[in-house]
Design goal:
The complex is a heterodimer. By secondary structure, chain A is mainly β. Chain A is built from no helices and 11 strands. In chain A, the strands form 2 sheets. In chain A, strands 2, 4, 5, 6, 9, 10 and 11 form a 7-stranded mixed sheet that branches. A 4-stranded antiparallel sheet of chain A has the order 1-3-8-7, with no helix packed on it. Chain A is globular. The termini of chain A are far apart. Chain B is mostly beta strands. Chain B contains no helices and 11 strands. In chain B, the strands form 2 sheets. In chain B, strands 2, 4, 5, 9, 10 and 11 form a 6-stranded mixed sheet that branches. A 5-stranded antiparallel sheet of chain B has the order 1-3-8-7-6, with no helix packed on it. In chain B, strand 4 and strand 5 form a beta hairpin. The N and C termini of chain B lie far apart (41 Å). Classes of the chains: A mainly beta, B mainly beta.
Amino acid sequence: DADVTQTPRNRITKTGKRIMLECSQTKGHDRMYWYRQDPGLGLRLIYYSFDVKDINKGEISDGYSVSRQAQAKFSLSLESAIPNQTALYFCATAWTSGGGGTDTQYFGPGTRLTVL
Amino acid sequence: AQSVTQLGSHVSVSEGALVLLRCNYSSSVPPYLFWYVQYPNQGLQLLLKYTTGATLVKGINGFEAEFKKSETSFHLTKPSAHMSDAAEYFCAVSDWGKLIFGQGTELSVKP
């Protein structure tokens, strides 16, 4: 019974297709994030949300969009997938404790996306 | 802007040997620093973090890291490696609630 779940866990799609990756959390956290992981590049931030009405672009938001449907749900969409979006995608959550950035982020298990 | 550099994309040690994974940071403000571990086919798990106070931080599974402001470093160590420590390790710095990650270091442990 994971606290942060991601669906699907694996997805193969074709260039030009629209894809949605979903993230749900039962931790009651207010902040949610989407990262992508590429070998040798670490994790890079795509979008983040500090509460339901707050959406912010990260370092690499081009080609992606997000929706925060509820405090517990944060979806990432690729409107028209391209091969260089092939990567491992992680959702993360955190609780704003007022620590100014000291809060631990909790990660989901990841979604492996392949765009052919 | 904050940034993190991990020295060495791959480190190999023998079981029982010292583990040393290097991380240097750049930050215009006092940094909050994190080490995360990623086991195969899993998400990231927090090992330890430095916020303020004691510069030697102890984490889970026997790992610890020391914040050295003069060297802008936050190296991760473990006195004796175990086979189960084989994983990828990420150093990160907080940027107002966002994490800036290093490139990652894959640790291999030989029997």
